[in-house]
Amino acid sequence: MSSIETVASIPLPLRGRGKTASAAPCSGGPALQRITPVSSAGHGIPRWARRLSGPLLLVAAWHLASITGVLPGEVLAGPSTVLSSAAKLIATGELQEAMLVSLRRALTGLAIGGSIGITLAIVAGLFRLGEDLVDAPMQMMRTVPNVALIPLLIIWFGIGEAPKIALIALGTAFPLYLNVYAGIRNVDSTLVEAGRTLGLSRAAMIRHVVLPGALPSALVGLRYSLGIAWLALVFGEQINATAGIGYLMANAREFFQTDVIVVCLVVYAFLGLAVDFTVRTLERIFLAWRPAFSGA
User: For the chain, is the Cβ count within 10 Å smaller at the N or the C terminus?
Assistant: First the structure.
């Protein structure tokens, strides 16, 4: 028996471990089988439903604790009260206006801090002199808590919008710096040698090899920076804010309105989730060339 006949005689499920096969007719020869990875097969319940089940169970437990009196309303308002307060804030337009103000602050601070962090990371990552001049001060400054700088920011910039944006910029610069710098320095050396063999100039090497190789780390840094941006925003909006989600929370705190406080916290969470989803979408677009494990 020839080797081709031997392979053809092996049952299809045994040819590839963990594979499933489906028959497909083929004219002029034996029936062909299409092999489908088990990981691509459905698991019964859609993934979006499984991901949604966790938050729904948490809300259900919260509602049960509220209606049974285990969680008093003066400690934490129940879901129904929170929804009612959110509907009132939406009807008056206060919530939408506060969201726009807070989102503008966060994105402005991220743009400033991100630009500074990425620029310094490129200088330190590409040039040894830049590393000697930039890396040590950045490593020292990143260990200083941003909240501790609030008094200085108020003295320097006053109590307007500038200290809030500066606090966010300081918080977002360091994650981007660290990840972009590490991404540049961790580019595969074989790719660099291949570029030199092909005769790429230094500028072409940076453009076609180094920066694309550092892009995955840069996007990870962007996700970290976005998370820190919302944390810095919470603190920043406590500095004499006259608008924004933090302003609504400060007013609610004065009147012990836990329902409004919860509404503001949920808005913070959903805004952070929305921008994180945006970055994940960018990762799928720009990193489509990179195979990745998606879970078993």
Answer: C
